[in-house]
Recover the amino acids of this structure.
């Protein structure tokens, strides 16, 4: 009888359902409702298990690439205030003139311009703030490099090593084949990117896990207190140390590229030449770049303007030529720009933390990684 009562009254671990002895209940590994000596794991073990879970999910989401499977793609078109009261066709043609009036007419006639699920006619009057959608049926996207790796994750931030080519956000020809869309399938809550990298640039990207965390992390980038170090392989041989302090125009130039412009915001990038060698018969230099500001294409434009274009850059070419191309194809040679190191104040404790992203293949012969 006593044995039966003892079995009935035994403590059971809430987490793993193990039946526990008094000694096991008194163990420091026993936390009521959380763990016991049988299922207890250190913080390092929990972190490793979480990372393995994330990596498994990343592999599932990206094989096959999500944008390679045909799907009905709804692309948002938000109406700016300056177009309030215009008719639909005129608005579309003026707002996205590069698409062409005939193409917009065809989209409307095929019932592919929608508002709240309803097809709109060419004479529909649109209003400020209205959200329209362009339906692209059976859409597929160009392939990308989905070799995303997680450098760090805690309760506040996720730090990613972004491959290339891979756009950060849905835009142009890319929607599901983008970093934020893919991460949205891995995490059960929205991650907020604290900054961005070009589609062709590899390296560190920091995401905040909540809006509250973002309110601490994002201002550090806006106030330019984050220390960022890039590696770039360029054509030519610059000075050992130099800097470029030239404004970059706010308005895009050819195909969304940027140029030095007197009306732009202040920009400063400091450079240090680390190594010089011959590559495919041309003198090239490995450069350390430290941007003090964070403008679009800043490092690429500053190096290009200084006469040292980045190897593999599809937009900023030699002899100060600018091409009308942005994102590289998956089988193109890489653009040799890598977001290598990043230091910021951690939102949990305010102390500086530094993350380093291992270099892609092109860096191996230059930095020994």
């Amino acid at each position: 009888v006593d044995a039966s009562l003892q079995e009935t009254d035994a403590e059971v671990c809430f987490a793993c359902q193990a039946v526990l002895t008094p000694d096991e209940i008194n163990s420091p590994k026993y936390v009521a409702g959380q763990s016991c000596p049988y299922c207890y794991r250190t913080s390092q073990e929990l972190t490793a298990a979480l990372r393995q879970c994330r990596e498994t999910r990343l592999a599932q989401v990206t094989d096959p690439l999500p944008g390679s499977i045909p799907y009905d793609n709804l692309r948002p078109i938000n109406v700016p205030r300056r177009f309030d009261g215009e008719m639909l066709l005129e608005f579309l043609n003026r707002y996205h003139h590069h698409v062409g009036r005939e193409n917009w007419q065809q989209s409307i006639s095929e019932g592919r311009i929608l508002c709240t699920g309803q097809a709109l006619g060419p004479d529909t009057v649109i209003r400020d703030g209205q959200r329209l959608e362009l339906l692209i049926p059976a859409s597929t996207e160009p392939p990308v490099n989905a070799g995303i790796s997680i450098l760090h994750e805690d309760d506040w931030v996720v730090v990613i090593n972004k491959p290339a080519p891979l756009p950060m956000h849905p835009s142009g020809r890319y929607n599901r084949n983008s970093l934020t869309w893919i991460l949205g399938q891995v995490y059960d809550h929205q991650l907020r990117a604290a900054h961005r990298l070009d589609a062709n640039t590899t390296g560190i990207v920091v995401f905040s896990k909540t809006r509250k965390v973002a309110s601490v992390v994002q201002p550090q980038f806006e106030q330019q207190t984050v220390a960022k170090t890039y590696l770039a392989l360029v054509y030519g041989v610059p000075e050992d140390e130099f800097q470029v302090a030239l404004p970059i125009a706010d308005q895009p130039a050819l195909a969304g590229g940027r140029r030095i412009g007197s009306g732009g915001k202040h920009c400063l990038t400091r450079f240090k030449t680390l190594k010089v060698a011959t590559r495919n018969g041309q003198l090239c230099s490995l450069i350390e770049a430290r941007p003090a500001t964070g403008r679009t294409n800043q490092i690429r434009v500053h190096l290009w303007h200084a006469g040292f274009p980045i190897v593999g850059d599809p937009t900023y070419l030699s002899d100060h030529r600018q091409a009308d191309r942005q994102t590289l194809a998956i089988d193109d040679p890489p653009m040799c720009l890598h977001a290598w190191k990043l230091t910021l104040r951690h939102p949990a404790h305010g102390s500086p933390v530094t993350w380093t992203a291992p270099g892609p293949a092109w860096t191996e012969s230059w930095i020994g990684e």
Q: What stands out?
A: DSSP finds nine helices and 16 strands in the chain. The first strand starts at residue 11 and ends at 12. The radius of gyration is 26 Å. The first helix runs from residue 2 to 8.
